[in-house]
Write a structure and sequence with these properties.
Blueprint: H1 3-21, H2 29-40, H3 48-55, H4 59-71, E1 75-80, E2 83-91, H5 93-99, H6 105-109, H7 116-136, E3 143-144, E4 160-161, E5 168-169, E6 177-178
Antiparallel strand pairs: 1-2, 3-6, 4-5
Length: about 200
C-alpha cells in the first residue's frame, strides 16, 4: 500500500474509532459535537442555525439533538436580548462538567509519545486539510476571531474590535468560533489562535 493509498484509509479508520468512542456517558456522537461547539462558539454563533451550519447537519437533526441535551439538563436556551425572536444557546454547569470527560480526549492522550513539536505540526496539517476541503466542498469556513480578517484594532494588546459589528472583543473572544469568520489572505496577520493551548477550534 502506497502512502497515497494509506492516508485516506487511516483517516477513515481513525474516524470510525472516534465515532464509536463517543457513545459514552449516555450521549451519542452528535450530542458530544453539539456540546463542543457551544463551548467554543462566540456570542454571534450560539444559535441552532449556526450550529447546523458548523456541523453540516440539517436544522431538524440539530433540533432533535438540542431537545435531548436540554432534557438531560446539559444545554439551556434563552431569548436574545436584542431580538426576542432569536434563540441563544449555552451550556449549563452540568454540560460543562460532562464535557470535561470528553471521550475524544483519549485521542490526544494517545499522542503522548509523540514530540510536542510534531503534535503541533500535526494540528496545523489537519487544519490545513480541513480548510482546503471546506473550500472544495463550498462549505462554511468557520474559524476563530483571532484569525479573522475582520478583526480590527487592539490585536497586539490581546483584544480587538469586530469589523462587522463594531463590538469590542476581549482576549477570550479571540479564541471563539464565529459564523462570520473570513480567513486572512497570505500572511496578513499572525495567528492569535496559537495562544489557545489546544490550537483547535
Amino acid at each position: 500500500m502506497t502512502k497515497f493509498d494509506a492516508f485516506p484509509v487511516l483517516v477513515n479508520r481513525l474516524s470510525r474509532v472516534a465515532h464509536a468512542m463517543q457513545f459514552s456517558h449516555g450521549l451519542n456522537p452528535a450530542q458530544w459535537e453539539a456540546l463542543r461547539y457551544l463551548e467554543k462558539a462566540n456570542r454571534y454563533s450560539s444559535s441552532p442555525s449556526a450550529m447546523a451550519d458548523y456541523l453540516g447537519a440539517t436544522k431538524g437533526t440539530v433540533s432533535q439533538t438540542l431537545i435531548a441535551l436540554e432534557s438531560k439538563g446539559l444545554v439551556k436556551r434563552d431569548r436574545c436580548p436584542n431580538d426576542r425572536r432569536a434563540v441563544v444557546l449555552a451550556l449549563t454547569d452540568a454540560g460543562r462538567e460532562i464535557l470535561s470527560q470528553d471521550p475524544l480526549c483519549q485521542i490526544y492522550a494517545a499522542t503522548e509519545k509523540v514530540p510536542e513539536e510534531e503534535r503541533q505540526q500535526l494540528v496545523g496539517v489537519m487544519k490545513s486539510i480541513l480548510d482546503d476541503l471546506c473550500v472544495r466542498q463550498n462549505s462554511s469556513q468557520f474559524g476563530v476571531c483571532g484569525d479573522c480578517c475582520h478583526l480590527g484594532e487592539g490585536i497586539c494588546a490581546g483584544e480587538g474590535t469586530c469589523g462587522i459589528t463594531g463590538d469590542p472583543l476581549g482576549a477570550s473572544d479571540l479564541h471563539r468560533i464565529c459564523i462570520d469568520f473570513s480567513p486572512c489572505e497570505g500572511d496578513e496577520r499572525t495567528s492569535t489562535s496559537s495562544l489557545d493551548s489546544t490550537g483547535v477550534w
